[in-house]
Amino acid sequence: MALALWLAAPRTPWRSRAVRLAVLGLALLLVLPWSLRNVWLYGDPFASGAMRTAVGHIITERSLFSGYFALHFPIVLFKSFVGLFGWMNLFPPVGFYASYLLLGGAASAGLVRATFVDRSRHPVGLVLIVATLSVVAVVVHINLSFTQPQGRYLFPALPAMAILGAVGLQSLPRALCWIGRPVALGLLLGGLNLYALLGIVLPAYHPPLTRDLGSGLRQVYPALVSDLAFSPPSGDFVVTGAAPWILAPADVRAGNFDTLILRMRATLSTIERTGCVVLVTVPASPATTSPLCFAWRADGTPQVMRLDLAAYRPWAGHVTHIRVDPLQSRGEDLRGARLIVEPIQLARRGHPQTSIDQRPARP
Fold this sequence. Notes:
12-stranded antiparallel beta sheet, 8 helices, 12 strands, alpha+beta, single chain, Jelly Rolls
């Protein structure tokens, strides 16, 4: 911002411009210790290269001209920035988003009016716009390698957005400028926030959930995915790579359960597919645990797989995570297929969930 302000004020004396530019030096001084640490540990000041080794399994390379940036990215980024709660699975109604969209549109129209109609151009406004666009550019850069259209990445631009929004609302024609008055704006934003808290978040988490599955059944939920992109409108996943998988924390003793139950649905083809389950145990790792594979059909109909763990040798000791590889590639292009995976269940023999015939497994 200091550099933008320095460039945007050509008539300011050089001494004043140098003082402003010194703020940039202060910012560099603040981040210098962390940058030196990153160079020492990872070889570059931003530690970006370490991402390929630390979280390489969730990297999804794509072009800036990918269709992802045309539709999925802006929609999910906007919803997440405004409010997308829980595990990005609690969605406010359309009217909630429309209120913020109309408010942002009114502020943008006011900025355009102030610039081209009232001709009130100020270098600080240019600095704030550059700051906002810079943050957006960072988010786009992140999503070139990761599927992360999360609104929290835009939070560094909130102060600039707030000032621009206030200026824009105050610059509306007299008949509409009441929108930017503190009382009206405070009531609108306060009401929307109260609705989000009391109408969306609170009912989802209160009263707290109670265990009703019985002692012989454990349900685990996916926490990490690879080569899969979550699609909020439909609540399913879109396959984005050749080796999709889902990782769920389990934290169970293998001796307490002997059946793994998977419920999945995918739109790919009517031919029989192969999926696999890989365990993360202590002290083993996914790379040293042989997979337990199964056959299923990804023809768009719900499928239930009940895998017998009793004869699966790696099923022993303390199991920390369960990884599901739902679709083996066979060299074909899986991208674009849609996949729904319900919570994974672990059951003890004799539980009603295990009464149906087991689905053949191929260790």
